What does this fold into?
Amino acid sequence: MSIETRLAELGIELPAAAAPVASYVPLVEQGGLVHISGQLPFVDGKVVTGRLGEDVDLEGGMDAARACGLMILAQLKAAGLLEKVERVVKLGAFVNSTGDFTDQPKVANGASDLMFEVFGEKGRHARAAVGVPVLPLGAAVEVDAVIAITQ
It folds into this structure.
């Protein structure tokens, strides 16, 4: 089954791939691995902002991480690589959070669970989830990825 078909089955419509907000490219493919730059949680064209443990609750953080995951998929689609995904290798989740917030791994599950929904076992991956004091544009979450593709 194609990934586009799977997305349709899940009722998922990918957003337009976001343009970089600084001097970098959205992704780089080298040797069968695609390194996807950190993606922000765009919903209806606006970045989900705020800080976990302050003004964003856990569910809101998970939703923001899922939005980052959708943007990762959108970047793959824009580059013509979505159907070539062989394996999601690693996600890195950065969570804008207070010093006493310790549920970064649960927030990151928003993106991780999406990868499993879309790719099945090929979507299981290694991961880091860290708390940070601030993210670009005040985003609540940012997620980057390493994806293996067929050559």
Q: What stands out?
A: The first strand starts at residue 27 and ends at 30. The domain at 3-17+27-149 is CATH 3.30.1330.40 (60s Ribosomal Protein L30; Chain: A;).
